[in-house]
């Protein structure tokens, strides 16, 4: 019998701790499938943030360092510069990356560190109970914006791919939705490109995934995906924002 699917070897057989319907499971699985494909589990170091992404330590069966909130890009810089033969990636939420860690990620991208940043944008602070994040949409209700985010009070959603792609150094900057099987395949191909860029020593890649948070959005996973399609993809359009000539 032909085996058409098996659990990635680098995905540890343990309970993740993620809420049902959360897309972290899917993203973690994609990461692990690529780590298996390139046979790099022994040389991978993941730098985890503070936030739901930290729970990936339960399921990533390779080396993991946990940074202080927002500081994963700085820690990843140190790890990669000390051990350039390692494959290094960060795995950060929007509160971590676009709020407390905003300056860390901008400078890391601007230095063109040879790492991959995986950015999980669920438009809220998931771990701490659904507060407003920099990526919360205008009108979106959160525990700190119960009447909906109001631009006059809280400003506008920060579009990280658009910001990072303005910098000179980044090699590959792209955003992917995970709402359909076709989009999941596209997302995995984008992530694969980012892996290859680092493995070939080309420099910094930034991959944003549009995610959902059924627990804090207060909707079923199915409704969340529909809401994301109808709202998040309008503000955060998926696509490749920057691909440097040398990797096209
Ligand atoms: C210095 C510091 N400030 C605040 C916190 C509290 N805190 C923990 S996780 C988090 C937000 C995480 O949100 P996000 O990065 O969007 O990730 P998610 O949980 O949604 O995946 C905050 C504010 C902390 N742990 N450390």
Write structural notes for this entry.
- The mean pLDDT is 96.
- The protein has 248 residues and is an alpha/beta fold.
- The longest helix is centred in the C-terminal third of the chain and has 19 residues, at 181-199.
- It has helices at 24-37, 72-82, 94-100, 102-111, 151-154, 160-164, 181-199, 214-217, 221-235, and strands spanning 44-48, 63-66, 87-93, 116-121, 124-125, 131-132, 172-177, 205-210, 239-243.
- Helix content is 36%, strand content 17%.
- It contains 9 helices and 9 strands.
- The protein has one domain (24-247): Thiamin diphosphate (ThDP)-binding fold, Pyr/PP domains (Rossmann fold, 3-Layer(aba) Sandwich), CATH 3.40.50.
- A 7-stranded mixed sheet has the order 2-1-3-4-8-7-9, sandwiched between helices. Strands 5-6 form a two-stranded antiparallel sheet.
- Thiamine diphosphate (TPP) binds at residues 50-53, 69, 93-96, 120, 122, 124-128, 133.
